[in-house]
Amino acid sequence: GPGQAAMYAGLQELGVANGEDLKETLTNCTEPLKAIEQFQTENGVLLPSLQSALPFLDLHGTPRLEFHQSVFDELREKLLERVSAIALEGKVEERYKKLEDLLEKSFSLVKMPSIQPVVMCVMKHLPKVPEKKLKLVMADKDLYKACAVEVKRQIWQDNQALFGDEVSPLLKQYILEKENILFSNDISVLHNFFSPSPKTRRQGEVVQKLTQMIGKNVKLYDMVLQFLRTLFLRTRNVHYCTLRAELLMSLHDLEISEICTVDPCHKFTWCLDACIREKFVDNKRARELQGFLDGVKKGQEQVLGDLSMILCDPFAINTLALSTIRHLQELVGQDTLPRESPDLLLLLRMLSLGQGAWDMIDSQVFKEPKMEVELITKFLPMLMSFVVDDHTFNVDQKLPSEEKGPIPYPSTIPEAFTKFLQENRIACEIGLYYILHITKQRNKNALLRLLPALVETFSDLAFSDIFLHLLTGNLTLLGDEFALEEFCTSLFDGFFLTACSRKENVHRHVLRLLLHLHHKVAPTKLESLQKALEPTKQSGEAVKELYNQLTEKLELRKPSPAEVTETPSMELPLPTVPTPASR
Question: Would you say the pTM of this structure is higher than 0.70?
């Protein structure tokens, strides 16, 4: 049948008899048995020592096919070993000449399943497979699939569209994985989006596959970077910036100097990677990073576009922002102003460059963004004054109170603070990290004081997934405060619910938080929240799913009518409270 024909495709060109020839011989002969014997002799394994052994195998009922097959498999293994050996021995030109001759002879059999591995092996070891052969492979889906990645690279480097088709599903998968972590149902302050080390992240499936596809091919590496830039521009999704850095560092781990030495961001990224690992920019590395930025020469400004993308990676921003908050606290202790700290100014310079990545790549104007003086002279001192307010309040609490009574915590915020958060991107980023910091310190007073400033922020940053992911995690430390009506009203009505109806992601994060903390929330408040968070017709699947999970949990908590009469309303049994140990 046609399947058989395909199996032996190409044999005739090589002057090797196939099934068709046997059929022809038998059709035109007088003595079929003699003809078969003759065909076997002419086309069998030509080893004199075998002539006597074959009838012996026949006696044992071993079919000739089985015998030929095993000889064939053995020979193919030997041949594959030999090809791999040829690829490593002798002078370069000679060994490739040998392999090219072998490819010329064997390529017509590439469709034979039994021979295909040998042909593929020869191509895999050729640094330049002849153009004509590549085109034939490309035109045949099955052959293309069967190819080694070494051969595919040669095809891809001149076919950006085909390479794009291979890379695109991986990039989609990467973004999806990131979003799944941000929306994960496990809310914890210890294990969050930023917990995995850079080394661990680079072991991820997508980064590994891309690294494998690129090999040492600079052209393919450049194509992937081009895809990432284009997608970042199209979507503003910062996870593409993370992948840009992870890919470079993955090639760095494998010591692929062919690529690392030509990527002008390599040393900068390597140094920043060490800071991200420590979640802090120390003084020595700060000097090094500054050296790279100051060293950008006239005519090479385009590298700033790449550096800005590396700095726009959320893991880089996280590290720079955490370091900024730490520096501000140290400055309070040293009684130093922000403008007198070169380290702090460098952190701000890198934050600006990172936050300006999209605009720079979009406009193709490669110069560092201007730093707003007021950020340094007004906004940061204001944050420092908040730190001082906390110190003062804490000291006051410890002093024996005279007749004057306890000093209340300052409840107002300077109007300028709110304005900065609305109008200045860097101020907003640092302000949000300060709020994460006080929440992590379980500083309820400071949180309630600053929350109103978050309702309107620069480009809605306070409702971005990364911030809400971190905030919900940190809020678990204030779990006991959720029993207080006033705290819940400030947090939910005053902040979360202001955006729930217009922002699906906020709706999801609030539901995540309640799934985790519902047993801590004041019962009357819980009821009104359940109403307020009910999905609408427009709500997506994720919101509906979370809401159903929450409803189920709350159903389980409802006491049976018998219990209600005996238990005062405030002390309902809470069967679902996790004990700290089991969390």
Answer: yes
